[in-house]
Write a structure and sequence with these properties.
With about 400 residues, this protein is an all-alpha fold. The protein is built from twelve helices and four strands. The strands form two sheets. Strands 1-2 form a two-stranded antiparallel ribbon. A two-stranded antiparallel sheet has the order 3-4.
Length: about 400
């Protein structure tokens, strides 16, 4: 996979390469009295299915990737037994044909509770520098996966202290799992426990990586991979006029990206307010969806959410953190307007005037034909090989 030449990625790559070379010789401390060294690991025993030129995701030392854990996680991902009432699996909200999104405005948990945020696709989620829509503290898939399994508000899988052992008993009763857990965790006396469930799921989801789109083929030299319309759309996407690439740039089309070539201190974890709401003209968002403000309480963090990858964007509708936009044309119109004006109702307010809105969301002019060109480019980010790859499919089908 070639590095994008249309954004700041080459400069960043060069910078991190220099850091890596410097690390081989040691970095001098400020007072010159000692040396601090670091090594950026680029190898892995796991078969990622990626080209040698593609940076690998960060692989935690506490949960190294293995094929046995990957296959166990794959089975668990599709198993309804992994819920408090035996009715919900990860697949309930993450369907492969939809890029592991669910096509719904808002997902529904195992007890029928409607969640506040749209279910995101999972392609290349291993490259996210933070997880979920708006949580600056969730930096690993292991930490994130515990949220839907054990969360109480909202309830998703609905596992808790009163039913956890029953869930584990159901897994032990499946004739496949005892051997699979033992193979994945050979050093554990009784490997069927929730920690290993989480580790296995994290390995499976971390392994959901692919760069096999028409755009990638075009970047690799196949000049026929993108239509003329998509090429015009690419030019628009990376233009300063539209400014899409500032939040959706880089090889994963998100400014919230991390991989193992990056020195941890330089990984960025940004969040953005795009002007979806401005309730009462005060900058407020709905009380159940305030972005990272929910965690930090910092007024300027109101309505700030992570920019998701645009890979597979054509199959992961509806859009935005609340699933409020049905199609890509509506999304483009929203950004062209510089935000959303809600004229009436409990959420009334002009998001275009939100005092906390990102400075890059200023609006732009786009003709109907340019809009179609932009959509053609976004469609070229669809990874059909990922969406149909048997390696990620339900093993029982």
């Amino acid at each position: 996979m070639k590095t994008l030449h249309v954004c700041a990625q080459p400069m960043l790559r060069a910078f991190f390469t220099l850091l890596f070379v410097a690390s081989l010789f040691g970095l001098s401390a400020c007072n010159g009295s000692s040396k601090t060294t670091f090594v950026l690991e680029t190898n892995s025993e796991f078969s990622w299915g990626l080209s040698e030129s593609t940076a690998l995701p960060i692989e935690p030392d506490s949960n190294p990737m293995t094929e046995a854990k990957f296959q166990l996680g794959r089975h668990l991902f599709y198993d309804d037994a992994l819920s408090g009432n035996g009715t919900q699996s990860c697949n309930s909200c993450h369907e492969q044909a939809l890029g592991f999104a669910d096509g719904e405005t808002l997902p529904v948990g195992s007890t029928g509770q409607v969640l506040a945020r749209n279910a995101q696709g999972l392609l290349n989620v291993a490259y996210n520098s933070t997880l979920t829509w708006a949580n600056s503290s969730l930096l690993s898939l292991e930490a994130q996966i515990a949220v839907p399994l054990f969360g109480e508000d909202p309830i998703e899988h609905g596992i808790n202290d009163s039913n956890e052992e029953l869930v584990l008993d159901a897994l032990r009763a499946n004739p496949l799992y005892p051997d699979m857990f033992a193979a994945a965790f050979p050093n554990d006396g009784d490997p069927v426990d929730m920690n290993n469930v989480i580790r296995s799921l994290a390995v499976f989801v971390r392994g959901m990586v692919s760069f096999e789109t028409d755009f990638d083929r075009f970047q690799s030299g196949d000049t026929d991979a993108l239509s003329a319309s998509a090429q015009r759309g690419q030019t628009l996407f990376f233009s300063e006029g539209l400014e899409c690439f500032h939040c959706h740039g880089g090889y994963n089309f998100s400014d919230s990206t991390a991989d193992r070539t990056m020195y941890p201190a330089f990984i960025e974890r940004p969040f953005h307010n795009t002007g979806l709401f401005n309730i009462g003209g005060t900058g407020d968002y709905p009380s159940d969806n305030t972005g990272i403000f929910e965690l930090t309480g910092v007024p300027s963090h109101m309505g700030k959410f992570r920019a998701p990858t645009l890979r597979n964007i054509s199959v992961t509708a509806p859009y935005m953190h609340d699933g409020s936009m049905a199609d890509l044309e509506e999304v483009i119109d929203f950004y062209a307007a510089g935000g959303r004006n809600i004229a009436a109702g409990p959420n009334a307010g002009d998001g275009r005037l939100n005092p906390f809105k990102d400075s890059l969301v200023n609006g732009f002019s786009v003709t109907p034909s340019e809009k179609q060109d932009l959509i053609a480019f976004l469609n070229a980010l669809t990874d059909e090989s990922f969406n149909t790859n048997p390696r990620f499919s339900d093993p029982t089908e």
